[in-house]
Design brief:
Blueprint: H1 3-28, E1 37-41, H2 48-64, E2 68-72, H3 79-87, E3 94-99, H4 100-103, E4 119-127, E5 130-133, H5 142-151, E6 157-160, H6 166-178, E7 183-186, H7 190-198, E8 204-205, H8 209-217, E9 222-226, E10 232-234, E11 238-240, E12 255-262, H9 267-279, H10 285-294, E13 297-302, H11 303-323
Parallel strand pairs: 1-2, 1-3, 6-7, 6-8
Antiparallel strand pairs: 3-12, 4-12, 4-13, 5-8, 5-9, 10-11
């Protein structure tokens, strides 16, 4: 056989082998679940995580053609349900959900030995908290509430979903910026914390806006400020101004929520969910409508983009806990740099 024919044959064989090697990788890109998928919501029903996860689960169901079951397992500021997902069989059928900043700081608080890098992140919305009070309280502005907290240290009660929750991070940031002390009253989720403030069990709440929206619209809560630097619009209510209008130099990064799959599952699971995120979740009208009606930001992301987006809030949350003497493990030993 002459040289040109041998070269042609060699190239053909190499191409064929390349295709054979590529087949398993291509096959990994598609996962067809053979049984229902469980998403553990580690907070009570009705809260922000529960709300957005159920909207997202319905979209995933349509894309995968398989039932997605949302199960509430509240307790220990979300760490119990998250632990159950982490310890479930790594077959790709058990996921969890919540705020990425919580997931990234459980280890700092000694709640759960896991880091943000142990999970594949699939974000759906970014949430901000709102500082609201029961309408029967005398506080009509942030300044009035702050003055009262200074006059009565540790007596003004604030409802949150517990240590490490979004509401707790928000009131801690406010306390640090203003030098006030408050009475922390915890509940098993954002919705119970909001309801407690509506009922008059507490004076105020700093839970997420999405958890308060209905009560704000119904004038059962009086919003004083968005815990951030940008105003938000709530359908049927209007504009809530940012805390930075009253508290100079206040900063609180966006709190990204999503669905989290523990690493170690078959790679085709992650590849398929990434495909669903890019093709379905990013274009979901149902999720966009949810965000608009609840005062949230529609913000789908996955992979490296998701990790980059969530790290500022993880850093702030972790070092906030450390500076307050609440950390069991120093953030820097976990690779969390000071912001």
């Amino acid at each position: 056989m002459d040289r040109s024919k041998r070269t042609t044959l060699t190239v053909a064989i190499a191409a064929s082998l390349s295709m054979l090697v590529a087949l398993p990788a291509a096959a990994q890109a598609t996962w067809k679940p053979e049984k229902p998928i469980t998403i553990i919501v580690p907070w009570a029903a009705g809260g922000s995580t529960d709300q957005v996860t159920r909207v997202t689960a319905a979209e995933i169901e349509k894309a995968l053609g398989q039932k997605v079951v949302v199960v509430n397992q509240p307790g220990a500021s979300g760490s119990i349900g998250t632990k159950n997902a982490l310890e479930a069989p790594k077959d790709g059928y058990t996921w969890t959900a919540g705020a990425a900043k919580d997931l990234g700081t459980y280890a700092v608080l000694g709640m759960l030995d896991t880091k943000i890098g142990d999970w594949a992140l699939f974000l759906n919305v970014a949430n901000v908290s709102t500082l609201s009070v029961n309408p029967n309280t005398p506080y009509k502005s942030v300044a009035e509430l702050v003055d009262a907290m200074k006059a009565k240290p540790g007596q003004i009660s604030v409802a949150t979903a517990g240590v490490n929750s979004s509401g707790h991070s928000a009131i801690e940031a406010i306390a640090k910026a203003t030098g006030v002390k408050y009475k922390h009253v915890t509940y098993d989720g954002g919705n119970p914390a909001v309801v407690a403030t509506v009922a008059g069990e507490t004076d105020a709440t700093t839970q997420l806006t999405v958890e308060q929206a209905e009560m704000i619209r119904g004038k059962k809560l009086r919003p004083l400020a968005v815990v951030g630097d940008k105003p938000i619009e709530i359908d049927g209510y209007g504009t809530i101004e940012p805390l930075t209008k009253t508290v100079a130099n206040f900063k609180d990064p966006p709190n990204y929520f999503g669905i989290f799959i523990p690493k170690g599952v078959p790679p085709q699971v992650i590849a398929t969910v990434e495909k669903v995120w890019n093709e379905n979740i990013r274009n979901s009208k149902a999720l966009k409508d949810y965000a608009t009606s609840r005062g949230a930001q529609f913000a789908p992301a996955s992979g490296a983009d998701a990790l980059k987006a969530v790290m500022p809030a993880v850093q702030v949350n972790a070092w906030q806990a450390a500076d307050a003497g609440k950390a069991k493990v120093s953030p820097d030993t976990l690779g969390i740099a000071r912001p």
